[in-house]
Design goal:
With 523 residues, the protein is α/β, with parallel strands linked by helices. The chain has helices at 4-19, 34-42, 46-65, 73-98, 103-121, 148-151, 153-176, 181-201, 225-228, 234-248, 281-289, 401-409, 428-444, 491-495, 498-519, and strands at 213-220, 253-257, 269-270, 294-305, 313-314, 321-332, 335-341, 382-383, 389-394, 414-419, 448-452, 457-460, 466-470, 476-483.
Length: 523
């Protein structure tokens, strides 16, 4: 059939897109890659397969993350093109080995190469964009993947690819009538059903939700992000935050969350002298009147430096260097109890790797340029007086499982996510972001408190269930009594991305053996 390769390519892209959160067709992910597997088996030319697989992956990328365009058009195009290209390499490696090796070894290579790619993409290398890590697909079906507390999202990626490979083998066996159909059918049933059964058996019982509960309040001011950065509106925004806070807090309130960059100033606030910033006086006045309350908030801030650093810039017309931060602040009646600087910056809008810095002028950043923010490399817990030990995460950082679990391993007992998803408008982006936070709750068996400027703000329990969500484009507050003690550490918290690392080792072995075999005749 003349158009069969193109139809196979399109089928994979469309099914992967339809399976992605917040869709109800998650089950399609278990068959989405079968057309691409047929394409790999039927296409002899690596160049042709590369182009067709690129089309599949580009459809998936654009279909699931088209909303990036609302925040940054150049960043969106770059993300789609670059991410699709990177995703092609595991498939190309699989295709090359498929022409030379047995079916089972080439299948193992696909598992290894893909999981190795995802692991590398989760590292902080400048173009990290793991939004489409395959294991994220189950964020909307959290009851299926309670075992992420052991494997993290790597287990979900493995589940997806292995299921597709076995179903592909079953279909091939049925077509060829080679007598292995029943065997492959049993393999498929085992791989598809076993994780579901395990998830049901280990679903957390009520006792994991803990005792020693204390009240946490989340504020959602619902300020349009484009109006938020308008000069002269800072005090009005702060006044609204304080009004909502005063209306909701009580004598039982321990902690209040404000969203990302809630404390905004056009030039930022000087971290070395926050208590003398005139605009922030109302915050300290409120806290002095409510000494039992702590506030965790986002802030645009800076520090003046005596010497330049990797991330510093110079104030025009002076010899003074400074670092600017998309930061967070823990504050109470006694003053500043801790600060945090966003560590995982968004490619294209907050950072670019050194080899793409010549494109700086192509990428707009809200309040700066792509090399504008300094970042913090170490995970520091912010401990407040009522017993909560906060794991701070700003926006994009919450999609990194290993990043978040490091806080819990160090003793944090509450994942606090502050974000501003309004740049994307009312699109699937902010809903996907919320659901990804559910995966972090399951991996760490920790409560999540999520404050989003325009929504969706929510509490998420250790099983990944969402509580009292405050919908998109709504102004308001929510509160809940949650434990201030740490749950028992999960295997994932203790050992991190061990499954990713295992398959990276397998990928290295496969590549090593293939290269050795290639050069053997010459020897």
């Amino acid at each position: 059939m003349k158009y069969r390769p193109l139809l196979l390519s399109l089928s994979t892209g469309v099914m992967a897109w339809l399976a992605w959160p917040d869709s109800s067709f998650t089950f399609l992910i278990f068959v989405a890659w079968i057309p691409l597997l047929f394409l790999a088996a039927e296409t002899k030319s690596s160049k042709k397969f590369f182009l067709l697989s690129y089309l599949s992956l580009l459809i998936w990328n654009v279909g699931t993350t088209w909303w990036i365009w609302n925040a940054t058009a150049p960043g969106a195009v770059a993300a789609w093109l670059a991410n699709s290209l990177l995703m092609c390499f595991p498939w190309l490696g699989y295709h090359i080995l498929l022409q030379k090796k047995s079916g089972w070894l080439s299948g193992l290579s696909l598992l290894a190469f893909w999981l190795c790619f995802e692991f590398i993409h989760l590292q902080d290398w400048g173009l990290s964009w793991p939004w489409l890590t395959l294991g994220n697909v189950f964020a909307n079906q959290i009851e299926w993947v309670q075992w992420y507390a052991v494997t993290g999202v790597a287990g979900g990626s493995l589940w997806v690819l292995l299921s597709n490979l076995l179903l592909f083998a079953y279909i091939n066996s049925a077509i060829n009538k080679d007598g292995k159909r029943i065997r492959f059918l049993l393999y498929c049933a085992t791989v598809l059903l076993s994780p579901l059964i395990i998830s049901f058996l280990i679903y957390p019982k009520q006792e994991i939700y803990g005792i020693h509960k204390k009240e946490v309040v989340i504020i959602q001011p619902n300020i349009d992000p484009y109006k938020k950065i308008t000069s002269g509106t800072e005090q009005e925004q702060l006044g609204d935050l304080l009004t909502l806070t005063a209306q909701t807090t009580s004598n039982n309130t321990a902690l209040v969350l404000w969203p990302e960059t809630a404390l905004y100033s056009r030039y930022g606030y000087n971290e070395a002298d926050l208590q003398h910033e005139t605009n922030l006086v109302p915050v300290f006045q409120y806290l002095n009147a409510q000494p039992h309350v702590s506030i965790f908030t986002g802030i645009e801030s800076y520090n003046l430096l005596k010497a330049p650093t990797t991330f510093s810039r110079i104030i025009p017309g002076t010899n003074t260097h400074f670092e600017a931060y998309n930061g967070a602040l823990l504050v109470d009646s006694k003053g500043i109890q801790g600060t945090y600087h966003k560590s995982r910056l968004v490619p294209g809008v907050e950072t670019l790797p050194w080899f793409l810095r010549f494109l700086d002028t192509w990428f707009e950043k809200f309040g700066g340029v792509t090399a504008g923010y300094a970042k913090q490399n170490d995970r520091v817990i912010l401990e407040e007086k009522n017993g909560f030990k906060l794991a701070p995460a700003i926006c994009y950082e919450s999609i990194y499982g290993d990043f978040m679990r490091q806080y819990i391993k160090k003793g944090a007992n509450l994942l606090t996510i502050i974000t501003n998803d309004g740049w994307w408008k009312n699109t699937p982006g902010h809903r996907q972001h919320l659901h990804y936070a559910r995966l972090r709750a399951v991996e760490t068996r920790s409560w999540v408190a999520r404050s989003a400027n325009t929504g969706i703000s929510a509490f998420i329990d250790p099983a990944g269930n969402i509580h009292t969500p405050l919908g998109y484009n709504k102004r308001g507050t929510i509160k809940a009594a949650i434990p201030s003690v740490q749950n028992k550490l999960t295997i994932y918290v203790k050992y991190g991305d061990w499954l990713f690392q295992l398959f990276c080792a397998i990928a290295i072995i496969i590549l090593g053996k293939s290269l050795w075999a290639r050069f053997q005749p010459e020897r």
